Amino acid sequence: MQNPNNILKEVYGYDEFRPLQQEIIEHTLSGQNSVVIMPTGGGKSVCFQIPALIFEKVTLVISPLISLMRDQVEALKANGVAAAYFNSSQSDFEKRMIVEECRSNRLKLLYLSPETLVHAFDSWLKDIPVSFVAVDEAHCVSMWGHDFRPEYAQLKNFRNHYNNVPFMALTATADKITRKDISDQLGLDDPQLFLSSFNRANLSLAVRPQVPAKKKEKEIIQFVGERKEECGIMYCLSRKETEKWSAFFNSNGFNARHYHAGMTSESREAVQDGFINDQFTIICATIAFGMGIDKSNVRWIIHNNLPKNIEGYYQEIGRAGRDGLPSDTVLYYNYRDVILLNDFVQESEFKETYLEKIKRMIQYAEATSCRRNILLSYFGEYSDEPCNNCDVCQSPPEFIDGKVIAQMAISGILRTQENIGSTMLINILRGAKTGELYERNYHQLRTYGVGNGHSYAEWQHYINQLINLGFIEIAYDDHLKLKITPEGHAIIKNDKKVQLSRFISQAKKKKIEKESKTQKKSSTAVESSLFESLRAYRKEIAAQNKVPAYVIFHDATLNEIANQLPKNEAELLEIQGMGKLKLERFGEAILQIVNNHKPKEITSKLSTSQQTLALYNSGLSLDEIAAERNLSPTTIIGHLCKLFEENHPIDLNKYVTEYEVNQIRSSRKKLKNTNQLKPIYEDLNGEIDFQKIAIGLTILSKYH
């Protein structure tokens, strides 16, 4: 049996497994079932792909989206793995070829949707020998999951047929009730639960409550403008909002598209492909967008509205920074979002559960303690250490005695017979002179103007806290009117203490965040011109291969190259994400790019082949040239062949005998003058190595 660690290095280019990956792989190789809960970007795919490469027969991967299948298959093929997907987008010929590859055991992984699986199982799939089954996005099987899909319910029958085959169910987000339901619905008997840490430390977390529309637009344009060349997603509750924001971004000089379920499937696919391939940088979408997308370089997520639950919110922000580099998330919300969310669940038989989930989301948004710790605790992981990467930790609240503030607010609500919302309450307390306020005679109340020492934003800050603390509640079913709870009445009647966090202006928060970001960037800085050159090279190669850029290399890999400045192939192979196949395909070009970006005083003006020529002419041997250039002998031979073809006086007969050239000539003629190395190598029974065959073909192409 192959060693998983060797596969990790040779195929994926990584030296060490992430937490839990190795345990999950070994558990699967022993033939046992598992449920894997691992956050987006945590490395779920490696957990089932490496066992698939070790098992003898094909591994089936059940996945809900064509785009997800395509992304993962392209990435696997780029790493030299035999993989395919089978779905309705393919021609009959393509499907027949895939079936034949399965029957002849030439495929290691086959991706199918649940619908395709059921149809294929009734025809050809039942006869295919299978070693292992992985069910990705497994929360879709559960009615308690945030993205339930009825077609997943059919998988239990399929499971019964493969009773002796290990199953692995994987998802990024599932609370306790969903985890149990996944096991039950898939018919997994007592599976091992692997619960990875949900701490995505590279994601910054910020919440912006009750921001007026125009101010919100200004803030968002500034936010995105500071990240002009970076990709991001803006999530909206309604289709109309996605179209509005997309148009807004485009009118302000950005390149954006909208995405929602009301578009044709062709239009949605075109938008998704364009985003994946970096044709535009911003997507304004409903939650229909993003599940399973492997795009690693999304740098920011904005929520235009309050999400309906923490699971969905966590998965959506998890689409940023999948490569581990710093990325930012911002959540905007107002109380009207809560009305909309409550309306969505009114007819559901699980109404009480869904309402409780909305309440937990509100508690997160209105928290005055570390936001990351709140998220972690929701998923059963506990920490009391501040994350220092959320708005609360970056601007820790200073608590004040808020009893007088609370009494003014509560008194204002009571004197209007609990018939006003927060905007009117603030206007009354500040002594505003609005038409509606005067029409209702609220200017004659004893509380009119008593709070004019605080700004509108300050009052908004304090009222939000009083709601969050349970002294005031919002009547979501009665036009957002404010009502006083029994705890709130107690503040008026006795000496109950009230502790509120002091208001900090948005300008001061931004200054603190900027200082924090500057410190982060200084510790992860890259040589920007080299990084951009590497990105340009990656984009060119991706276009040639018709795959997304991140399939070639993640930003994190390019980042590490730009920082480490590898001098030779051995050092380049140490870069995380640089497997052997990618080194063979792209190593020489990358080393040349790095060499071109070294300080000018040590960078030769000669091209790489000319530098080799100069050393060759000085009388150095092949191995001596390779050592001097910090390149492999194979790379140097490539230079010498190129120089030979350009009529430089290179004696290639030093590296191949006349007898070997004649053998290569005979084989080439026998194979109808092919110039491919492998057929000649096989025809000569491996007696002449690839390097000599390449040299021989170069000689023959010039003289014969």
Task: Give an account of the 3D structure.
By secondary structure, this protein is of the alpha/beta class. It has 5 domains: 4-195, 3-Layer(aba) Sandwich (Rossmann fold); 203-394, Rossmann fold, CATH 3.40.50.300; 399-503, Winged helix-like DNA-binding domain superfamily/Winged helix DNA-binding domain (Arc Repressor Mutant, subunit A, Orthogonal Bundle); 525-601, HRDC domain (DNA polymerase, domain 1), CATH 1.10.150.80; 652-703. It has a 7-stranded parallel sheet with strand order 3-4-2-5-6-1-7, sandwiched between helices. Helix 11 links the parallel strand 10 (256-259) and strand 11. Helix 17 (403-414) crosses helix 21 (486-493) and helix 23 crosses helix 25 (555-564). The longest helix has 18 residues, at 506-523.
What is the strand and helix layout of this fold?
Layout: H1 4-12, H2 21-29, E1 34-37, H3 44-54, E2 58-62, H4 66-78, E3 83-85, H5 92-103, E4 109-112, H6 114-121, E5 130-135, H7 155-161, E6 167-171, H8 176-186, E7 192-195, E8 203-209, H9 213-225, E9 231-235, H10 239-251, E10 256-259, H11 265-276, E11 282-285, E12 298-303, H12 310-317, E13 327-333, H13 335-345, H14 351-365, H15 371-378, H16 391-394, E14 399-401, H17 403-414, H18 422-430, H19 435-439, H20 456-468, E15 472-475, E16 481-484, H21 486-493, E17 499-501, H22 506-523, H23 528-545, H24 549-552, H25 555-564, H26 569-573, H27 580-596, H28 608-617, H29 622-629, H30 633-645, H31 658-670, H32 677-683, H33 690-703
Parallel strand pairs: 1-6, 1-7, 2-4, 2-5, 3-4, 5-6, 8-13, 9-11, 9-12, 10-11, 12-13
Antiparallel strand pairs: 14-17, 15-16
